[in-house]
Amino acid sequence: MSILVLGLIGNSIIISDLAFADKPDLEAAKEARDAAKEAKKQAKEIKKEAKEAAKEAREEIKEFDGAIVSNSSESPTTVSDIETSGKATICHIPPGNPANAHTITVGRPAVSAHLAHGDIDESCETADLDIVEKSKVEKESRASEDSSQKESKALERALRLIEQLEQKMSNLEERLQNILDKYESGEYYGNISTADAVTNSYVISFEGLATSIYDDTVTTEMSGELFMENQVTASDTSKFKILSGEVKIGNNYYDALFGKARTSSAGEQDSMVIVLQTMDSEDNDNTIKMTLGFNPPLEGEFGIPSEEFEILENSKVSGQWELDGSGQLSRGS
Length: 333
Description:
By secondary structure, the chain is an alpha+beta fold. It folds into four domains: about 5-65; about 70-125, no CATH class; about 140-185; about 200-330, Porin, CATH 2.40.160. About 35% of the residues lie in helices and about 35% in strands. It has helices spanning about 25-65, 80-85, 110-115, 130-185; strands spanning about 5-10, 10-15, 70, 85-90, 100-105, 200-210, 220-230, 235-250, 250-265, 270-280, 285-295, 305-310, 315, 320-330. The longest helix has about 55 residues, at about 130-185. The radius of gyration is 44 Å and the shape is elongated. It starts with a strand and ends with a strand.
């Protein structure tokens, strides 16, 4: 004999098997378990449906409370009606048309937004529209003052920027003047106490790519040719004067006004640092710095035959382009 107790408490199904002595009892127990399992599944679905229904109800209540219920000149009949419905009566004053003020009923959450643009928290029948109009005039006056203040602040900022720009230009002119003064006095090229007795001319030609300093996805073709002559030739360091030349980057030409170059030896590789003062196609002055790497090192009467080089890192047009490429240095005629 078997006894099966089946109960549904809340969303849980409780099964108690007291005894299953024979095969018919085992089959009955299995059927009971299956029934309990199905009941549990149905209870779970009912609970899910109830949760969804509650969620929809909350959303509907929220939407109802925030909506404008009417646009009528009639107000609710009693205070009790207003309190129980969750609504408020306000005097709506259309912007720019205060003569068309009229009473409307809105959800409580919407009241603050209406008051912010000049509506009154009572019906138009009880509101003092003269005060309303005065309030609007004062509000427009404050808005006008705010606009004036914003304009004044913007003007002050513009003047500060202009002053900063003028100072920057002044500093730039001062820097250029210092460079020109050093160039005219010879100080620009450094100490040339033991100048070479024989002066030779050299040509540096190169090509490659220029990459924008501000956006490394922007690249353009770059090429150039510089003409220089030696000033001091030594085993460890030699100095040169850039006489002329140009660098082309995209469609812009940078004409060399004057410049200098210096070689240095670093074991297996010699390098040459070039500094150019240039004027571009739009008459802007620019500084170009380039570092050339020679491998094998420069030896003896270099430039005969031509010496190959790579343009190394930190070669750039100041504030505009980073330069990369290769070229050759050769003795001029």
